[in-house]
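Input.
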Amino acid sequence: MEWKTLARSFARSPSRSIGTKVFLLFFCFVCLSVASLGVFSFTTARSAMMAQTESNSGQAIVLAGEKLDMKQQFYLDLTGQLIKNSEFVDNLFQFANASTMPAGELDNRIAAVRDLLDQLILSDPRIRDMTLYSLEDAVPPISTDRENTAWDENAAWVRKVKDGNGRPIWLPIEDRGYRGNSPKPVFAYGRMIGKMNTGSSDYVLLVQIEASVLESMIGGVRISPSAETALFGEDGKPLISTLGAAGLSSLQVSAGQDEEGQTERRDDRFFAYRKSPVTGWTLAGIAPLKELTGATDRIRTTTYAAIGVSVLLALIAGIWLVAMIGSPLGKLESLMGQAAGGDLRGRLRHRGKDEIGRVAEAYNRMMEQIAHLIRETRSTVDEVAASSGELAGVASQTADSSAEIHLASEQIATGAVELAANAERTSVRVDELGQCLAEVLVQQDKMAAAAREAFESCRIGSRDVEELLRKSDLAEIRLRQAGGRVNGLAQSAASIRELLGFMTQMAKQTTILSLNASIEATRAGAAGAGFKVIAEEIRRLADRSNASIAHAEELIEAIRSEVDGTADTMADALPFFGDMAEGVHEVHRHFTNVRGSMDHMLELTNAVTGAVRELEYTQNALSMAMQEVSAVSEESSASSEQVASLCSVQMKVGESLLEISNGMKEVSGRLENQMTSFIV
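Output.
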């Protein structure tokens, strides 16, 4: 039975089976978790192993490159020893006179230089030869190889050495060598010797070394079983490879790599580089990525196997989980189908302490409670049938009482309508009274405003009169001061007149004196001629003074006359100013009296306004009271009508209750029949 229930659970759509949902969620979660963890572990391990492999490969290339640098530095040191040899340098200086030097001496010096070169190449048997070429002196090439000493000064390698300006220039591998007579492939380096280092004429020193040196140095370097190790020139072109010429044709690297080592991945291959600080050449190791990641393939296989086992275990656990959940739920579904048909005797027998067990226990309790409810319902149906009879009698009595209340309510509504009409008429009259009071209040406000304006005008007029009074008093004072000054001016004019009289006497005496002086000068004859002229001038001056004094007397007389007139005018004006001041004082007293009256009138106006406003407030209260009376009357009428309507409704409700009680009898009968269909 349980296996059939389990099969039905799997056969259903996930949207209709919780067991299938739980299985799919559990299975997918476990599969995704294990797969994600496995892929993450594999990726992490692969990255760590690749990083370690790349580091080891780069270190191997760096060590091999340093070893190669030591070997090539050894070859460079040989030329350094040669440059520091005093005999060699002396011979170079002597070669500058080779054209005039005896042939025997020249041969001896060439032999001495050749012997030095022979001694140097004995330090390493793989040095093919060393050759010294003169660029300026008439000296033939000096070489440890006596067979062929011919050379082309315009060769490409010679130009490179010249451009190096004394710096060693490493030359790539040549199958026949740079002198064209080598039986084995060689590589070489050349450098300038002369003015820039020894001070002699310029020479080119060429050192050729067998290529087997490079082959032996890079042949032992392997970063993987099938890896390739190659050496590249400064221009990035391949020089030698562990795969031979076939390998060189397919390898290219960019020049200028870091001398500390560098790694990179390109397509399906791994590259490790190191640029030599001695030669400028780049040593590179190239390996297929699949060889470096061989160990990670085994990890990947193990990861996939673990994922497969985890999926199988998840499948088994999921089926067990569905069996634990689906079987009780299927049994529960069957029992609930029986309960839907009326059989409430079924119980779920699951004794577990988990959620399914608690659901089964809750279901059993629910069935017990439903059965108890059915039994209680049967007894309640009997009670409802008895109560429906009593309800029918009460409904009949309610209908009769509602008819009597309806009649009384109609009478109350009629009286309330009359009261509302009277209150409405009274409210209209009160409103008319309110309008009259409002107009009185408006006129009173206007009168109060006019009183305030009049009071303000009186205040302003009183202030202006006070100012006019002050100015009148000041004008009278100023006028009296001006009269005093005019009198002083008259006195001054009299003094000036007396002074002019004195000046007139002096002018007359001067005239007399000038006449006497003229008479005396005439008596003196020629001796008094000059004095006579002076006397004449004095007389003329006295005449002009008399004329000026007469004119001044006329002006003083005119001034005295004007001053007297002004003094008379001021004397006449003083009584007028006194009368005007008295009139201004009288006007000020009138304004003061008017202002007091207006102040009293303003107080009376404010009192009247307050009384009118109080009357308006009383009228408003009366109007509101009448409106409330009217509203209450209308509400009473409406309530009476509503009560009458409710009574009508109550009558209908009583009739309906009677019908309902009859219907309840029928329903209780049918319900009792239905209760008998349940088996408890």
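The domain at 369-674 is CATH 1.10.287.950 (Helix Hairpins).
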